[in-house]
Amino acid sequence: MNSTVYDAFRCLNLLATATRPHGIREMGRELGLDSAKVTRLIQTLLTLDMVQRDANRKYSLGIGIHRLSAHAIHNSAFYNAVMDLLEESGNHAISIVIGVLSGNKVVYLIHTRGGKSIARAIGNYESYPVHDSVIGIKLLSAMSDEEIISQIGIHDYQLLRSDIDESRRHQVFAKDFGEGDYRLACNIPGMQAAIALSNISSEKMDIESLRLYLTSAAKKISGESLPMLQQ
Fold first, then answer.
1. In b/e form, how buried is each residue of 179-211, taking b as 16+ CB within 10 angstroms?
2. Which of 226, 171, 175 is nearest to 202 (CA)?
3. What DSSP state is assigned to residue 230?
4. Which of 105, 164, 194, 216 lies at a C-alpha separation of 20 to 30 Å from 35?
5. Is CATH 3.30.450.40 the right assignment for the domain spanning 76-220?
């Protein structure tokens, strides 16, 4: 593995997940890198417009990364399939969520909400603790126990162990998070991502139909047909 490229991506990831600009030394401390190396990496990223520097010599993401993101989304088979999915599903009280793991958190790539436009569902990028997300649990269940511990630590693994074991036994993992918030999740074939339905009232809805819809929706992202989502 090319360590320079790897560390450059680590710098970008740090700035992408930060809520404020970072200085060179601060980035070095957080990433465990020598300040001189961070300086060289940042200078290269500045040249590519991937980062920008403010008057206080601190750094945040630059316009280049947003340009790259726009091209990636526009030409992405994944996002094109998801757009088709959302348009066919319509606007429902049930939320459709697609997420990926990032350390001990889940980052939402898609998150629909009742009454909100499809455009607001794309590129949501909210993050939640893995133990608060059926997506996180479902994605972890596809890993070995050793990989899970490396990903989230032994403490969180012990907290989630029963849920992970349950998720491994079923294609669609279900969990009740309280009144009116029953959630379902399944992994998307061929991707390190999962799709979920939330805000489900289990007493009023046909859960088996929703399970079928969810598995079909996951396959739809790979180009298969999709049944209509029933309210």
1. eeebbbbbbbeeeebbbbbbbbeeeebeeeebb
2. 175
3. P
4. 105
5. yes
CA distance 130 to 136: 5
Tens of pLDDT, residues 149-187: 999 999 999 999 999 999 999 999 999 887 778 899 999
Answer whether 195's CB lies under 8 Å from 97's CB.
yes
- For domain 3-67, the question of CATH label 1.10.357.10 is answered with no
Domain map of the chain by residue range?
Answer: 3-67, 76-220
Q: Can you tell me the distance from the alpha carbon of 101 to that of 125, in angstroms, rounded to the nearest whole number?
A: 12
Would you give the DSSP letter of residue 227? P
Q: Tell me if 211 sits within 8 A of 202, measured CB to CB.
A: no
Closest by CA to 27, choosing from 17, 13, 38, is 38
Rounded to whole angstroms, how far apart are CA atoms 164 and 175?
11
Would the CA dihedral through 102, 103, 105, 106 be positive or negative? Answer: positive
Pairwise CA distance, residues 196 & 215, whole Å: 10
Nearest to 107 by CA among 172, 174, 193: 193
Stated pTM of the model: 0.78
| Residue 204: DSSP 8-state | T
d(CA 192, CA 105): 14
